C-alpha cells in the first residue's frame, strides 16, 4: 500500500519540519489539498505556500484540487511539477479535455469521486487516467469519520479498471487509519491518503509504516 500523508493536518507553524518528517518517515507521496471556498466550504493552499513545500519535499507531490475552476488551478500548480494532479468529476464539464491538458505538462492525471458519485461516472475516462481517487469523507476537512460504502465502490471500480486499464491506480482519501487499512487493501486500493491519523501520531514514521500493509 502506498501512503500519501495529507499536509492539511500538519502544524503550519513549522511546515518545513513537518514535510521533512513525513518524507524521512518513509511516505510515498506528499498529498496537498487545494480548496477554493466555493466547491468546498473551506480554503487552503495556493502556490505561495506549496512552492516552498515542493522545495523541501524529497517525495513527489500529489495535488488534490477541490475547486470550481479546475483549468485555472491546473495552470497555477503545473509549474511545481507534482507527480499527480487530481480534480473532481462533479466540478468539471469537460473532464476529457482537462486530462489531456494535465498530461501535456508531463503530470499524471487523476479524477476524484465524492462519496455519492458512482464509479460509472468515469467509465469512459479510465483509459486516459493514471489514478482514480475515491473520497471516503465529504471533501473539505480533515479528521472526519470514514464512510464505509467506499469499500463496495472500490470493488466495482477495480472490475472496471481490470477491463479497461490495468495500470490505473485506486486511491482512497478520508478517515483512513490502522484499523480500516486492511479492508481497503483487500478491496483493491493501491494508495491511501491519511491526514489526522499520521499527524496525530507522535511517531510519523511508525504511523506511515502501519499503513504500508
Ligand atoms: C479532505 C481531504 C483529505 C483530508 C484527509 O477534503 O481531501 O485529504 O485531509 O484527512 P483525514 O485523514 O484526517 O480524514
Ligand atoms: Zn485530499
From TrEMBL:
Gene: rpe
Cofactor or coenzyme needed: Fe(2+); Co(2+); a divalent metal cation; Zn(2+)
A GO CC term assigned to this protein in UniProt: cytoplasm
List of residues binding a divalent metal cation: 31, 33, 64, 173
Name this polypeptide is given: Ribulose-phosphate 3-epimerase
Family according to the record: Belongs to the ribulose-phosphate 3-epimerase family.
Reactions catalysed, as given in the entry: D-ribulose 5-phosphate = D-xylulose 5-phosphate
Originating species: Halarcobacter mediterraneus
Regions crossing the membrane: none
Gene Ontology molecular function: D-ribulose-phosphate 3-epimerase activity; metal ion binding
UniProt cross-references to HAMAP family, sorted A to Z: RPE (MF_02227)
UniProt binding sites for substrate: 6, 64, 140-143, 173-175, 195-196
Active site: 33 (proton acceptor), 173 (proton donor)
Any GO BP: pentose-phosphate shunt
Keywords: Carbohydrate metabolism, Cobalt, Isomerase, Manganese, Metal-binding, Zinc
SUPFAM superfamilies attached to this UniProt entry: Ribulose-phoshate binding barrel
Its job: Catalyzes the reversible epimerization of D-ribulose 5-phosphate to D-xylulose 5-phosphate.
Cofactor detail note: Binds 1 divalent metal cation per subunit.
EC number: 5.1.3.1
Domain of life: Bacteria
Pathway: Carbohydrate degradation
